[in-house]
Each structure stands twice: as structure tokens, then as C-alpha cells.
UniProtKB/TrEMBL annotation:
Its cofactor is FMN. This is Alpha-hydroxy acid oxidase. InterPro entries: Aldolase_TIM (IPR013785), Alpha-hydoxy_acid_DH_FMN (IPR012133), FMN-dep_DH (IPR000262), FMN_HAD (IPR037396), FMN_hydac_DH_AS (IPR008259). Residues 2-380 form the FMN hydroxy acid dehydrogenase domain. It holds the Pfam family FMN_dh. Belongs to the FMN-dependent alpha-hydroxy acid dehydrogenase family.
Amino acid sequence: MKFDTRYPSIDDLRTKAQKKIPKFAFEYLDGGCNEDVNLHRNTSELREVQLKPNYLRKHHGSSLKTKLFGVEYDAPFGIAPVGLQGLMWPNSPEILAKAAFEHNIPFILSTVTTTSIERASELTEGKAWFQLYHPTENRLRDDIIKRAAEAECPVLVILCDVPTFGFRPRDIRNGLAMPPKMNLKNILQVFGRPHWGIETLKHGIPNFEVLKPYMPKGLDLKQLGKFMDQTFSGRLNEEKIKPIRDMWKGKLVLKGVASEYDTEEAIRLGIDGIIVSNHGGRQLDAGQSTVKPLATISEKYGNQIEVMMDSGVRSGPDVARAMASGAKFTFMGRSFMYGVSALGKNGGNHTISLLKTELQQVMEQLCCEKTTDFPNHLIK
Ligand SMILES: Cc1cc2nc3c(=O)[nH]c(=O)nc-3n(C[C@H](O)[C@H](O)[C@H](O)COP(=O)(O)O)c2cc1C
């Protein structure tokens, strides 16, 4: 086994992460929105999916290798974009980008995380994807897209599920809402997590590296919140997507799709792939779990656009369930961040190895030889 046997599940990593990082950082990572209904529904409804094994069928071996946008990846899952990663564990976007490169799986860099497009590209030899929060100003949009193209990002991901910031009571209580504030309670939590504190001091206070060139110097936290509010306009529409499609020569993916209407719009606007996602239950607490719209969307539109999925995936069997339900590829946000928050520089490698081992076991159990065969094992 290539992973640390003390942590044989994502839940073990979550428990360890909770002990290692300050409460405000853990709650930012772990929480959903409002009452966390959608957060839990994502995993619980995904786990209602059941798969059928064929034990007596001739088995020629199972392979996790999966093709997406003409690239063969070593597993059918990738690392979803997560903002403020350096807050949860210093250097975590670099740790995850490197691990993703070594395991040949996709890593998506968020606009609002703590490493730059250029650094992510360097660590992955130009394989990192980039997720763009839509800037208010065209000049800023064009500049960021140009940087992503120059860094040879193969895939640009735009988001449709953030017309407003999610309503997240824990982050509001902890002062992590916009504008953010560091209060005495948070400072005391840092003292309770000395390893995190020392590593953070060693690496320096995390910064929004993608946005640094555009930010006025010396902003205090309140001004930073205002800058973010003014810099991004969340609601996506045809007028905003069209110029991006014209400008971006690589593959373009729309993330946050949860309806047939948005899928049809994506196809009409020339988008290459969608990630059926509800942002890990962080935006619309009254929404569906992603596995529900996934099945209909992939059946109706899977031959016109690449259909991927995220939200609620926490294990190899979960990846198998999502793929059997129609996803061509899956992504995870929290699972990898729990891994790196728990195990630091070994967290990326450990989490990917664990998920690969679990998924391989599921495939062999089912007698599923290729990842495209998962739907044949779905019990309807
Ligand atoms: C702490 C946190 C921050 C996130 N930040 C971003 C972001 O900056 N951009 C983005 O597209 N999605 C963001 N997401 C959503 C993830 O990309 C992904 O959709 C989600 O984590 C999937 O659900 P899962 O965590 O259950 O795997 C974030 C998710 C979490 C948990």
C-alpha cells in the first residue's frame, strides 16, 4: 500500500485536520451554507447509488486510466479549485499541484487561492487548469486570461454558481466573511495549533498571488474585502461568456451547472465541458445533490458536451458511483484539503494514493475493466 495506513479514509484525514488547524480555518473548509443541508445531501444521496458486480465474467484487469479532452489521465478524478488554500495549510496549493502532476491527474487553480498561475504551471509543466472568477473590468479579465494562456494552461474553468457569495454562518461568526476581520477569538485559536502557526510563520502570511499584481499595496483586511467586492461580478451570462470563448483557444469548462437549461446554454455558447456541481453545498442550501441532475444531464447531453461532476465525493466507491451515474470525470475539493491539512507535504500524495487504491479495488470487485464501463454496473 502506497498510503500512510494510519489514515485509510477521507474521514480519518478530516478528523486529523480538525485537530491540526485553527477552528476558523477548519470551519471555512468543512462547512456548507445556511443549515448545511445540501452539504450532507451531496454525499448521502450519492451513496444511495448501488453497483452490480459480475463475479464470474472473464476479467482481463482493471485500469483507472481515463481520457478527457484528448489527454489520458492516470485516474478519473482531479483536484477542484479551492480559494484561500494557504489559510488551511501553508503552501497547500503547491503541495497539491505537485502531487497531481506526479500522479498525472488534473489540478485546478482558483483565482482566489494563494499561489500564482505561473507557479502552478511551473510545478505541473503547464498541465494545471485555471478557474476564473469573473472580473468586473474587461481589462483585468483579459490580462488574467492572457497570463493563463502564456502559462500554457490547457483548460479554463468559469463559474456559474456564484451570482452571490454563499451565506455561511460559521464564516460570519469567525469573521471570514467579506470584509474579513481577525478577532481575538481567532488569534487564540492559532495559539492552540502551534504546528500550523510555525509553518505559517515559516511560509509567510498567505497572499492572493493571482491577484497581487492588481491589488493596491498595503491593504488592511477591511479594504481587501472591498477590493474583492469591487473586482468581481459573480453573475455569469451570455454577454460575459462570449468574449471569453472568443479569446480562449484552449478547452473551456463551465462549473456549477445543476440544470438542463444551463447545460443547453453551455452547448449553445460553444463550451467544451461542464462540471455538474453545487460548489460542495456552499451556495444554495435548498438545492439538489449533484448526483440527481447528473443522471439526466449526462443521458440527454453527454454526447454533445463532456459531463464531469463534483460535490460530496469522499472515497473511491463514491467516484465509482458518480461515474456509473454518468460523470465522465470527477473532482473533489474538501477530500484533498483534509489530506493536506492533516498531513502537510505528504497530504497530496497520500490522498491521491488512497483514492486510487480504493477505486482499483471497486473496479476489480465489479469486474469493470475501463472507467467508461461504470454505467454498465449501475443498478437502476
Ligand atoms: C473551502 C472551499 C473553497 C472553495 N473555493 C472555490 C473557489 O475559489 N473556486 C471554485 O470554483 N470553487 C471553489 N470551491 C468549490 C470546489 O471547487 C468544489 O466545487 C467543491 O469543493 C466540491 O465539493 P466537495 O468539497 O464536497 O468535494 C471551494 C470549496 C471549498 C470547500
